[in-house]
Each structure stands twice: as structure tokens, then as C-alpha cells.
Inverse folding.
């Protein structure tokens, strides 16, 4: 008997199909002035990924692909899912329209405004924040700034300092640490 793993990135549909399902068609159609850039965005495939802990979504313009975090598909999170979806669509439309990677610059912001979205680089989604997934947190003794680690940091807090307060003032201390995973489980874990 072998253990089968679910495909971690199943395709959930094209942007066109999902925008219908999620009633975002009229929002995307506001970008009709972008012509073929919008058409090609509508043909993009959307995938779901459950491995990313803190990334809501990613747009791969050349591959015509959008990846959304599976955490966005839980009940009650439709608004976050929709805004992430439109955010990534705006990347594809802007990049195709301007024939270059616009990042979160002017080209992308223009599309976001056309779609009726606030052109914010990233919106705070609590359950995707590093804090929600931290296994270790350090604290600056000077300013109280918290530093969250999603993976076990290689360095120790006493060998680092707070970026805001500098090496003299910004001494760091371990604030919180999750219990380490059981040994057996750790040994079995494969490195991809
Ligand atoms: Zn973005
Ligand atoms: Zn500090």
C-alpha cells in the first residue's frame, strides 16, 4: 500500500469561468478598454495552492496562470478571495498591455482603479500573516517590534539586531517558540 497525495495545485478553472461563478464578470469587463490584454487574461488558468503559508496569490503572466492560496477558499473568506483574484488579474492585464513586468507600479495601479479596486500593494489578510503562522517570534527590547518566523531561523536572536533600532540599541530576545515537531516525523520529512 502506498500513500497517495492529492495534487497540491489543482486547476480550478479559467479566469473567465471563475469570474462568472464568483460574479466578478462585470468588474473585469470594466477593463474592456485594455482589449486583447483582457481577453488573454480571461483565458488564464487559475490554480489553488495549499503549501504557501503567507502568500495570498501569484500571477505568472508568461505562463498565463494565476495561483491562489487554498486558505482563501474557506467559507466566509469570499471577499478576500475576490480581491486577491482581481489583484492578480490586474497584474496579468497590466503586464500584457504594457508588454513588460509592471510590478505594483503605475500600469498595475491603473488597471486596479479601472476594476474598482484599491491599488494597494498588499492587503492584510490576518490568517495569511506571518504572525498567524509563526513558529518563532523575536522581540526588540528597545522598540518592542516583533519579528515572526514561519520557518525555524538559522541564526539566534542574540546574534542579530532590530533593523529600526540598530546594533547598539536594538538587542533582540526570543519572545515565543512553538514546540519542535516530534523526532520521528522530522526524520521522515523529505526535502523537495
Ligand atoms: Zn501583486
Ligand atoms: Zn527596535
Amino acid at each position: 500500500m502506498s500513500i497517495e497525495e492529492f495534487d497540491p495545485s489543482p486547476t480550478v478553472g479559467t479566469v473567465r469561468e471563475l469570474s462568472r461563478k464568483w460574479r466578478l464578470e462585470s468588474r473585469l469587463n470594466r477593463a474592456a478598454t485594455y482589449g486583447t490584454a483582457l481577453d488573454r487574461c480571461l483565458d488564464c488558468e487559475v490554480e489553488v495552492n495549499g503549501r504557501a503559508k503567507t502568500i495570498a496569490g501569484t500571477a505568472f503572466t508568461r505562463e498565463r496562470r494565476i495561483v491562489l492560496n487554498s486558505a482563501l477558499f474557506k467559507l466566509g473568506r469570499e471577499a478576500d478571495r475576490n480581491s486577491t483574484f482581481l489583484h492578480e488579474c490586474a497584474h496579468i492585464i497590466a503586464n500584457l498591455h504594457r508588454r513588460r513586468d509592471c510590478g505594483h507600479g503605475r500600469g498595475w495601479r491603473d488597471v486596479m482603479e479601472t476594476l474598482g479596486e484599491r491599488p494597494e500593494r498588499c492587503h492584510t489578510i490576518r490568517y495569511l500573516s506571518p504572525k498567524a503562522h509563526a513558529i518563532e517570534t523575536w522581540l526588540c527590547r528597545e522598540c518592542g517590534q516583533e519579528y515572526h518566523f514561519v520557518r525555524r531561523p538559522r541564526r539566534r536572536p542574540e546574534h542579530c539586531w532590530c533593523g529600526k533600532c540598530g546594533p547598539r540599541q536594538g538587542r533582540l530576545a526570543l519572545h515565543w517558540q512553538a514546540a519542535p515537531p516530534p523526532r520521528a516525523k522530522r526524520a521522515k520529512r523529505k526535502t523537495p
